[in-house]
Amino acid sequence: MKTCVQTSRLDKALSKRFVFKLAQTREELEACFRLLHDEYVRAGLMDPEPSGMRVTLHHALPTTSTLMCRYGERVLGTVSLIRENGLGFPMQRIFDLGEIIRESGSVAEVSALAIDKHFHAVKDRIMMPLLKFLYEYAEYRFDTRHLIIATHPQHIGFYENVLCFRRLSCPPVDHYDFVKGAPAIGAHLDLDKAKESFLRKYADAPLEKNLYHYFTVAALPNGQFPHQRFDTESDPVMTPKLLDYFFNQQTKVFSTLETQEIRLLHTIYSLPKYQRCLPPLPESLPREHGRNPTRRRFPVKCPAYLRVLQTDNVPGNRGDSAAIALAVYECSEKVFCAHADRPLSVGLSGEVDVELGLNGFERCTLPVEVVRLSQHNNRVIMLQIRDNSGEQGKLWLKFVHALGDTAPAAADPEEVPPLFDSDELTSTLRGAFG
After folding, report:
1. C-beta separation of 125 from 429 below 8 A
2. Is pLDDT above 90 for 36?
3. Cβ(52)–Cβ(34) under 8 Å?
4. What CATH architecture is 4-237+419-433?
5. Has residue 162 got a pLDDT over 90?
6. Distance CA 355, CA 303 (A)
7. Three-point CA angle 92, 84, 287, nearest 5°
8. Is-contact 97 170, C-beta < 8 A?
9. DSSP H or E segment with residue 69
10. For the chain, which residues make up each domain, given as ranges?
């Protein structure tokens, strides 16, 4: 069977009617979920649902992004990027990801890939720019290093031979309940090494077949990245109305959750307007076990420097004070988590300068103390803010509160746009991709 690199011209410009973007409105998300449902049912990967949609709990999390290919108003393809979260990755049900997680860099699972059945004759010509958009979205938007997949054995050749994925060391599984018991193989792409892998494989390929040039050099003018007010590690789209619509009204996802999953949702969505659409916490749950959820934490991307005055326990220090480079990846009102440029120990204290990247206030200085280390890596730390009552503390609180208001307003329901004629669109696709 020929691959998309053999049948497509990667250097052919796309029609302007093609758009690759994050699904953000109810209509866009519903079109993606319906397309995913229809294709999974057709492939025998799920039973039909009354809603006609495939919606999972991971879709409710702000760390999941549903990407789409749209031609005019019709959604032709979709794929989801699931970043690190409290539920874990779907494929962790069957694969040990320790070898990936122990490496440096963030991890994301590529999942829920589907192309409209009416255009399977040209599906690879839709899929390649969709995967290019995902590649750029993962690497440049969220600084993702590791992409992981669980795929059917029939498709592993495409990921290995075309996209330079490598199989996980753990063996394939015969039964993956997430896709109705289908067999699955796990694979991984290290984006830090992907350019080198693509270059080795495609260095001598002509431009129209050269995936190195396509993924790492060529532009995708049809890609539309969502606007961000500041650097964060998520593009949240689920408003209370959307959560209620997809997970209560249209499906029974929320009604089937276990207690720990409900607790996680209440921790993530702690604002009253969200909690009204979440399943309630069990009355029997002890207060210390989640009846009073912790304050919200937000994924961010903020460079920072920690100045430690007493440096006896700071490796690599050469002076009276140490300036330790940090990359803050999660924050709340009282604490934040960061990757440090060297191993640290609990009890270190000092002042941290954090670049907030928000118009009107770009940096704040806070007194902090290291209160926790990762079990697996003493460069991954949690710092507690010792005092946020002053002007700098108020600046920090303003930043954190603004993070809680990044999700767009829910779109009002509108009439479903008319569909394009399939034969006409297939003809257009063939011309657009060559």
Report:
1. yes
2. yes
3. yes
4. 3-Layer(aba) Sandwich (3.40)
5. yes
6. 6
7. 90
8. no
9. strand 64-71
10. 4-237+419-433, 240-289, 298-403
Compute the distance between CA of residue 373 and CA of residue 380 in angstroms, rounded to an integer.
6
* pTM (predicted TM-score): 0.78
Helix axes 123-136, 422-433, angle to 10 degrees: 60
What CA–CA distance (Å, rounded) separates 274 from 407? 12
Can you tell me the distance from the alpha carbon of 400 to that of 80, in angstroms, rounded to the nearest whole number?
A: 27
What is the mean predicted confidence (pLDDT) over 109-125? 90
pLDDT over threshold 90, residue 195:
yes
How distant is the alpha carbon of residue 122 from its chain centre?
Answer: 27
pLDDT tens readout for residues 50-94: 999 999 999 999 889 999 999 999 999 999 999 988 889 999 999
Token duo for residue 117: 């059945």
Tell me the per-residue pLDDT of 256-290, one tens digit each, with 9 for 90 and over: 999 999 998 988 888 888 999 999 998 776 654 44
CATH no., domain 298-403: 2.40.10.220
Do residues 149 and 165 touch, judged by C-beta distance below 8 A? yes
pLDDT computed for residue 228 by the predictor:
67
